[in-house]
Amino acid sequence: MNDVADAAAAAAALQPERLKLTEIFLSLQGEARDAGWPTVFVRLTGCPLRCTYCDTTYSFYGGQWWEIDAILAEVAKHGVRHVCVTGGEPLSQKRCLTLLEKLCDAGYVVSLETSGAIAIDGVDTRVSRVLDIKTPGSGEVARNLWSNLPLLTAHDQVKAVICSREDFDWAKQIVLQHRLFEVCDVLFSPSAGQITPRMLADWIIEEKLPVRFQMQLHKVLWGEEPGR
């Protein structure tokens, strides 16, 4: 029995590492610190959360299996420096950590968009971790993994999608309580259809809150067009 198990383990070790992907495409980064840069997006399939404002629900299911080396080859075809690994929730696939490491080894400027519900301690330190804080309006506030916050560095970013004034006040308290603005960039985004961009901008100015207002640049340019 041990010989059979050992043989199975050896065979598994020889199998190429794979990830399930929804899409790979070239666009402009629409959010966060690198907004505006031509960027290859690697969108992994699957997410354990169901945020009320999610605009990528198509990535929850389906997808195709890709060998990690094939992903790197596809990224290289686009000929740009910036790569964003996103989802879904990319960290819900354990081999995402291997992909991130290999992208960094290849010399790319790599960012990871993650929900904040899964531990980020295993992510390569060369990656800029864009960590969501789920507000009450997201419907997933209970999924925030607060132990992630002490792990953040100046290389990382924190993002909150604001659905209401109540969300804003709640997120303000989190930012101030944890003094996140002293650690890394903090970004607030308006939730489309729930508050207007101007409302959020006015609240930030009125409160003199040390956060960065942002909108989704790709949606301003291309609306809901897939792969943009």
TrEMBL record:
Q: Which keywords does the record carry?
A: 4Fe-4S, Iron, Iron-sulfur, Lyase, Magnesium, Metal-binding, Queuosine biosynthesis, S-adenosyl-L-methionine
So where does Mg(2+) get bound?
T56
Names of the cofactor(s) = S-adenosyl-L-methionine; [4Fe-4S] cluster; Mg(2+)
For molecular function, the Gene Ontology terms on record are:
lyase activity
- Pathway assigned to this chain's UniProt record: Purine metabolism; 7-cyano-7-deazaguanine biosynthesis
UniProt key word Calcium: no
**Which reaction is this enzyme known to catalyze?**
6-carboxy-5,6,7,8-tetrahydropterin + H(+) = 7-carboxy-7-carbaguanine + NH4(+)
Q: How is the cofactor bound?
A: Binds 1 S-adenosyl-L-methionine per subunit. Binds 1 [4Fe-4S] cluster. The cluster is coordinated with 3 cysteines and an exchangeable S-adenosyl-L-methionine.
| One family name in Pfam for this protein | Radical_SAM
Per UniProt, where does substrate bind?
L28, Q29, G30, R43, T86
Taxonomy, superkingdom? Bacteria
Q: Which residues bind [4Fe-4S] cluster?
A: C47, C51, C54
Residue ranges annotated for the Radical SAM core domain, each copy included:
34-224
UniProt xrefs under SUPFAM superfamilies:
Radical SAM enzymes (SSF102114)
Give residues annotated as binding S-adenosyl-L-methionine: Y53, C54, D55, G88
Is 4Fe-4S a UniProt keyword of this protein? yes
Annotated EC:
4.3.99.3
Q: Which CDD domains match?
A: Radical_SAM (cd01335)
Its job: Catalyzes the complex heterocyclic radical-mediated conversion of 6-carboxy-5,6,7,8-tetrahydropterin (CPH4) to 7-carboxy-7-deazaguanine (CDG), a step common to the biosynthetic pathways of all 7-deazapurine-containing compounds.
According to its UniProt record, which protein family does this protein belong to? Belongs to the radical SAM superfamily. 7-carboxy-7-deazaguanine synthase family.
Q: Which PANTHER family match?
A: 7-CARBOXY-7-DEAZAGUANINE SYNTHASE (PTHR42836)
Which proteins does it associate with, and in what oligomeric form?
Answer: Homodimer.
Query: Could you tell me what this protein is called?
Result: 7-carboxy-7-deazaguanine synthase
Q: Which organism is it from?
A: Thermomonas beijingensis
